[in-house]
Amino acid sequence: MEFEDISIQYFRLRRHFDAALKESDPISFLDLSHSLRIWVDMKSEIDSILKNNYPAIRFKNPTKSKIVDKILKGSKYKFLPLASGVNSPGVQVKGLFMVNRVLTPDERKKLYEAGPPELKTTNISFSEWLGSGIYKVSDADNDGNELQISRAMLIKRAANFLGASHPKGTDDGLAGENRFDKFIADLHNTSLAGDFPATYYQLIEIAKDILNTLELIFIKPE
Question: Domain tally for the chain?
């Protein structure tokens, strides 16, 4: 790909990101999902650009909280860090987790004191950042083992089986990928502020992080 082609995709993503924030409807979110899918496909090109021309640019990942891990361990749960946060009418959504049991007063106190997840600057490539786990669940069908779904997988499955890039219900997915669908579908059925699916909030955060991190490459100061 030529740099100009990637630049067009950057501004395309920005347009769909702005539209998703403004319109906040299923159509704008599907368009954002489809635009993000392109970034998964061109991750190698982004790796090369950063390595050869912008080695100082760094992506950030949520830090792992030992307190949260200890409290969630052994429980059935869903954990969506949303460490950089997503603004919604009247509230900023960060650090979402749902536990299928009653927390003790001490656990609630510890979680409050720990605060929402924080971001840490990493030394990883764009491909590795996309491959980092961003949605963590306990896999009840696998003896309660923990399962992490990466940014790339969430984008791909949202685009493929939720209707962004293929008509909903027509994509069977690869055997190694569609095993995540039930967990992503469960997340999609979880409504957050504004009564929008949690998947949309995560896709908005991913788009925001890409746009902000790569801004200096595509938007030149006047």
Answer: 1
